From TrEMBL:
Source organism of the structure: Periophthalmus magnuspinnatus
Myosin motor domain ranges (all copies): 91-188
Protein family: Belongs to the TRAFAC class myosin-kinesin ATPase superfamily. Myosin family.
Name by which UniProt lists this protein: Myosin heavy fast skeletal muscle-like protein
PANTHER family per the UniProt record, alphabetical: MYOSIN VII, XV (PTHR22692), SH3 DOMAIN-CONTAINING PROTEIN (PTHR22692:SF26)
Amino acid sequence: MKGVIMSTDAEMEQYGPAAIYLRKPEKERIEAQNTPFDAKTAYFVADPDEMYLKGKLIKKEGGKATVETDSGKTVTVKEDDIHPRNPPKFDKIEDMAMMTHLNEPCVLYNLKERFASWMIYTYSGLFCVVVNPYKWLPVYDAQVVGAYRGKKRIEAPPHIFSISDNAYQFMLTGEALAFALVFFTLFL
């Protein structure tokens, strides 16, 4: 991916047990890059139960779109209710600003897939998005702090430690004013 330095599995060992919670393994990245994909037919379609489903566009006609979902169901919806998908190489991407298609279903799908693998940190441009796992993950110990120390944001997987260390480094060098904007959202 342009602009991001992807670590090999061996380089990720510096993060210790936290590595699997920070970046998808090399094998998974390679498989995703080699997965066949047809950008002309790969879409998300609105669904009342799941919000969005992956599907293959069959036809567009008269403001309507017919899509066959991955489960084999054929649905016809308004053309506005389908959204282009990203190639599989963007699945579980660390910075959503790098996506080809930055639409609601693509963002939700990426966050869902990362969360399903307990990768709770994701960048969206300058922001770090965190999905609360409601359980303890081994991503906050001294080894992880040390692994992020002194690294540029593009040199390490998404993490609050990267944001804080970068802000600290900017303050030390006086290069720029550094601000960390934190939002807390509680869903009941």
